[in-house]
Each structure stands twice: as structure tokens, then as C-alpha cells.
Amino acid sequence: MTHPTESHLTEPLPWLLGEAADGFLADLYEREPVVVHHGDPDHFRTLLSIAAVDRKIAELDLREGMLSMVDANRSVEASDFVSDNGAIDRVAVARLYRRGATVILNQLHQSDIVLAAFCRAVERVFSCHVQTNIYLTPPGSQGFQTHYDNHDVFILQVEGEKTWRLYDRPVEAPYRGERFKAGRHVVGEPRHSFVLKAGDCAYVPRGLMHDASTSGDAASLHITCGLLVRTWAELVLEAVSEVCVGDPTFRESLPPGFANRDFDRAEARTRFAALMTRLPERARLDGALDLLTDQFIRAREPDVRGTIVEGSQPLGGTYQARPSLWRLIDEDGGLRLIAPSGDLTFARAPRVVVERALSGLAFGPDDLGYNEVEDLIRRLTVSGLIERLD
To answer: Of 222, 219, 211, which is closest to residue 72 (Cα–Cα)?
Structure first.
């Protein structure tokens, strides 16, 4: 059950940005960096702490890729802290950390239920995959040289302090595979510098070069919350793909010999121009957006906390839908519910009953007015879509 005071789950954007959340999506998102000083050192301690990171390194069965180490001042190779069998050498990690290397726990939300719930909340805001990487940097150290990320990030300073420097943006909205290349992108002088103290947050849009180093005498722990968005280019390509499925003209072969050096492209240009004029007439947003929406929902991790315990309890009490992404589709023979746990089909349940159960309003079995209410509640509970309140 989500407690109403858990604002990082119910209102993640205001929790991250405070008053700067107002107008952020309309005016600043993907355009300008944002720095927020909350003035509360414990603001992000709900999610993590240095003590928790220390414990995870000691407890988890960490394998290559789950933990990385970097140092802006010297090269750190995977072989320096990864054993021959792929396991992380904890002693080597501790030794390198004491010498100034930053410890990175990659994708920690995949094994930490608190971070996972936070990611799901942010995903509902942006409709994109959200990931967390954890950075623990010793005092007086710097993990990375100046670079840009090819995805937008929120930086949550949990403990300690870090000085950040922002530079130019050599690439506007880079693709996921369009990585920073040292030497190709001129760094120049910082355009903006600021210190994030414990409880502070910064938003850095993709393509904006930056670097950071620990300030003060204490270690720095921050969470990088990355937004892996879908783009208009992907939507357009999907819409074009749907046109091609429905129009055989696009599926005809290219002219024989088009790869030959003496191939005359004049006729091909005319044909290509004619095809391009057909696209605006046939391309439709809704079908392509529905497909991307369903792909996104199905790829989310379900929230199955409590489903094992609930499975041994008799039906009864009050239920409520958990915050989640879903889409209900009318099909021949019933309904299909697109959900993070996978699709559910309902042959006899009326649409109004399923929508009522998932509306977010509390309900008891008798409130739904449905003869097979027990099966409906069981299936929605097991899928993590609803939970018992009492």
C-alpha cells in the first residue's frame, strides 16, 4: 500500500524539483538545466544511503556489469576488480575506492525494491524507461572526464557534496547510440558551475557536456535517474511501417541493378518522390502510438509486493488499484487488459466493472456488482494491479 506521505511515489516531479516542477515539462524539459536546493539534507535518504551501498556491496552476488569503477585521473580496467569467474572482487573494490576510484552500481533499481518503485513513479510521468545508476565517490576525487549523456538525467545528491560544471551542447537531442567522443567535441570553458549538497537535485538534458568532482571532506553519494525516451523519429518510422503493410506499392522491389556504378537514378528519384506524396495521405498517428504505448506498458515491471501473502488470504475487505500503467481494449469475445504483468483477457466481465476496479477508488467485492468478482479480484491482485487496504 502506498502511504499518502510518500510523495516520491505519488508526485515524483515536485519531489525532485520543488517549485521548479511548475512549468518544467512545458518550458524546460529537454531544453535547459535546472538546479534545485531543497535545504533538507535528508530529502533523498528515503531512497538510499552510503551505509546501504556499503551493505549491498558486501551482501549482493555482484557480477561483472553490475558494479563498475572509474577514475578521471587514471585508467581502471574491469580486470582490476573482476575475478576470472566474473564475480566482483569486493576487496579490490575497497582498495580502489580508497585510492580515489568511484564505485558505480549499475541499474540498482533491478535489485532494490525502493528504487524500483521510484522508477515506476517517474515512468508514469514521462512514459519512458527510467533507470538508476548509483555513484559513490571518495573525498577529493572525480569519476569521469567531461562528457555528455545521450539521455536526460536527474541527479539526486544523497550524501556529501559535488561540484558540477556545465559546458556547451555540441549535439542537440542525441540518439541513444550517439555517444560523446573525446577529441571530436571541444569542451571549452564551463558555462555554469554549482555545488549540489545533500538533498539537492539537478536536471541535465541530454547532449549537454558536464563533469563533477567531490567537494568537502566527505564522500559523495548521488543517484543518477536516467530517462530513456522514445522519439518522434520512432513514431514516424512506425507510422511509415504501418503504411507499408497496407500499401503493396511500398513493398515492390528496388530497380534491378540499383547498386551498379552506371545505374541511372533519374527514374528512381521520380518513383521515390511519388511514394513520399502517398505517405501524408495514409500515415496515421493513432495506430502507431497505440503500438508504442502497448510495447511500453508490457515492458514495465509489475509491482507484486504482497501478492504471495495475499494469495493465502480469503477474499474480503477493501481493495484499491495501485498506481500503474494499463490500457483496456475491446476485442471480439471480451476485453484485453494491457498491463505490466502481461495481457489479461476477460471473456465475460463488463468493461465498466474492470474500469471501476482499476479506477483508484476503494471498493469491496459487493461494490462491483459482478457475479464472478472473486476471480476478477484474484487475477488483478496476483498481477499487482490492485491491493487489499485492510
So the answer is: 211
Helix, strand and coil content of the chain, in percent to the nearest 5, comes to 35, 20, 45
Residue 7 confidence (pLDDT): 81
pTM for the model: 0.91
Q: 169 vs 29, 182, 213, CA distance in Å?
A: 15, 14, 20
Task: Domain of residue 319: give its range.
Answer: 307-388
| Whether pLDDT at 155 is above 80 | yes
DSSP 271: H
Whether residue 12 is found in the same domain as residue 136: yes
Q: Which of 228, 252, 267 is the last residue of a domain?
A: 228
Q: What is the dihedral of CA 206, 211, 217, 222, to 10 degrees?
A: 20
Q: Are residues 240 and 224 in the same domain?
A: no
Classify residue 290: in a domain, yes or no: no
Beta-carbon contacts of 111 under 8 Å, excluding residues fewer than 6 positions away, are 60
Assess whether 166 and 85 both reside in one domain. Answer: yes
| E strand or H helix that includes residue 91 | helix 90-98
Residue listed under C-alpha cell 556545465: 166
Contact at 8 Å (CB) between 226 and 150?
A: no
CA distance 167 to 191: 5
Q: Looking at the structure, do residues 148 and 15 belong to the same domain, yes or no?
A: yes
Residues 265 and 356 in one domain: no
Query: CB under 8 Å to 230, separation ≥6 — which residues?
Result: 127, 128, 292, 296
- Domain at 336, CATH number: 3.90.930
Considering the domain architecture, whether residues 202 and 344 belong to the same structural domain is answered as no
- CB-based contacts of 16, cutoff 8 Å, min separation 6: 36, 154, 156, 201, 203, 225
| Phi and psi, residue 367, nearest 5° | -75, -20
Going through the chain in order, the beta strands assigned E by DSSP cover 34-36, 67-70, 102-105, 129-137, 152-159, 161-166, 192-196, 201-204, 210-215, 220-228, 319-321, 327-331, 334-338, 344-346, 386-388
One domain for residues 150 and 131:
yes
Which pLDDT tens digit goes with each residue over 216-236? 899 999 999 999 999 999 999
